[in-house]
Amino acid sequence: MQECIFCKIIDGKIPCKKLFENEHILAFDDIEPQAPTHVLIIPKKHISTINEIQFEDKNLIGEMFISAKEIVKIKGVQKQGYRTIFNTNEYAGQTVFHIHMHVMGGRRMSWPPG
Ligand code: AMP
Ligand code: ZN
Asked: Strands 18-21 and 37-43: what pairing?
């Protein structure tokens, strides 16, 4: 995916503040943080939205949550609490079409979200 900004980050063509990486997953700080902790966890496989996830991606998606668990420990927000968010398509405000889990913490958040 040549035009995908997150694929470019995975390929090292765009820099990022990397927090965690393995064969399947990359986690890095969001460039425009909306909370003191705002991390993006992405699969190295390009998947545009949750709508495109295939059954065979189930381990990969599971690994994103396992990574989230490690990230919140690194960031020290696991006890206070945090949000894990996937935005999908227009109404949810998705702007980058390579699935990513937002992990946000370090401040109290309201519900319902805007
Ligand atoms: P979404 O609106 O859910 O698609 O989220 C996309 C997120 O990617 C936003 O929070 C952006 O701030 C973030 N973002 C966009 N470009 C970069 C980048 N080069 N490095 C880190 N985060 C980025
Ligand atoms: Zn991509």
From this structure: unpaired
Concerning whether 98 is annotated as a catalytic residue, the answer is no
Percent of the chain residues topping a pLDDT of 70: 99
- Each residue's pLDDT tens digit, 87-105: 999 999 999 999 999 999 9
pTM for this entry: 0.98
41 lines ligand 1 (CB under 6 A): no
Class of domain 5-105: alpha beta
d(CA 56, CA 100) in angstroms, rounded, equals: 18
Atom number in ligand 1 closest to CA 32: 12
Q: Return d(Cα 93, Cα 100) in angstroms, integer.
A: 13
